[in-house]
Amino acid sequence: MPRSVLRTAIAMTLVATLAGCGSGQGTTAEPLEIWIRQAPDSASAKTAKRLADAFTKASGVPTKVVALFDDFETKLQQQAAQKNLPDIVINDTAQIGTMQQQGWLREVDKNALAGGAKLADLAWKAAQAGNGKYYGVPFSAQAFALIVRKDWREKVGLKPPQTWDELAKLAKAFTDDDPDGNGQDDTAGLVAPAGTKRGYASWYASSLIYANGGDFLTATGPGKFAPAVSDPKTVEAVKWLQDQFCTAKTVNPGAVSNDTTVTHEVFEKGQGGIYLVGPYVLARFVKSIGTEKLEVVPVPKGPSGGPGTLGEGENVYMMAGSDNEDGQKRFAEFSVSPEGQRIGMNKDADGVIVRLPVNSEVDMAAERQDPRWKVFQDAYRDAVYSPPVPNWTPIRQTSADAINAVWADCSADVKAAMDTLSGKIAQELQAQKAS
């Protein structure tokens, strides 16, 4: 090829390439970096990658998914210190206050978000910070229920529990009556992530607190709260659980030190038979334990209140400082679209990152054939999200420390401990100017 023709061909190629980059298809030199709180190489991380790939195919915006589980928030802090936050973070709804206070999040105009009007009002509340503004886009929701070893329940001859007394009776039978039939004293009734890491003790207790009509805080005015942990209904729920740990001894050994990663394995290994948990592990347990051995039962109403369980999920957070704000918005819109929600739901398979869909146009029953999901969906109607204080994380952690202590020390007086906790929460609310 003559040199003049070659130069012309190269120039035309460069022009075409540059034109393609600015063609409005969303292509950028740097991929949109998406962090998600999932274990690397897990089924959930692979679902997140499929979601990102589908977005890239639809928009032309390249993506890079980073899946992290251990010390997720610490690593975000490190990135913030380096002024190098990812573009997108998919993380717990309860983290919104912490991240917003540190200036990490872009405010969201829900009315300017394509598809925003199709998202559940309850889910939008979990994207609202203490100042009443929105700093996340609802992506996934969940409520809690009991995953129970059905084969064990049938072995001990009891019906699915509908009251706390029946729940305690079933837990005791699972502990004492050799439900797995191996002739050994090696089973527990309840399995519980009751450690203090990331506030798990209060996270676990919260569904029973709400089911009894209790709470951690009570609203006293717009953006203002008072402690509610010393309320008799809250104390009753924590005391009921202390009785399971200390008197009936129906909780798996070591629970006061465990997080969810360990507790999932305890349940899978047949060391306990009742797990109060969200729907995200259902497909995993069906695969590892067997579908015919499992049932999902609503959390029973407590003697003084209910119904109600913890409500939570994940938001898509558009992080401050991004060079690709348009790409951030387009990814958020795709993730909550019917297509994005269906990819995240992953049907009945393991690897769910959308637990309950937040888009009203998505029919969960059409996507998932397992009827046990409906128990979680029904529970969501009465779900209680963490209150919109400026920063929920220190309140949850302080509560976890106090609740864990009364489960670990059987001589502890629950009412006295909750009174002390109430004082600490009051101080924290004052510090946050939310009292």
Automatic annotation (TrEMBL):
SUPFAM superfamilies in the cross-refs: Periplasmic binding protein-like II (SSF53850)
InterPro entries per the UniProt record, alphabetical: SBP
Record-annotated membrane-spanning stretches: none
Lineage of the organism: Bacteria, Bacillati, Actinomycetota, Actinomycetes, Streptosporangiales
Keyword Signal included in the entry's annotation: yes
Signal peptide location: 1-18
Keyword Transport among record annotations: yes
CDD domains: PBP2_TMBP_like (cd13585)
Key words, A-Z: Signal, Transport
Family: Belongs to the bacterial solute-binding protein 1 family.
Protein's name in the database: Sugar ABC transporter substrate-binding protein
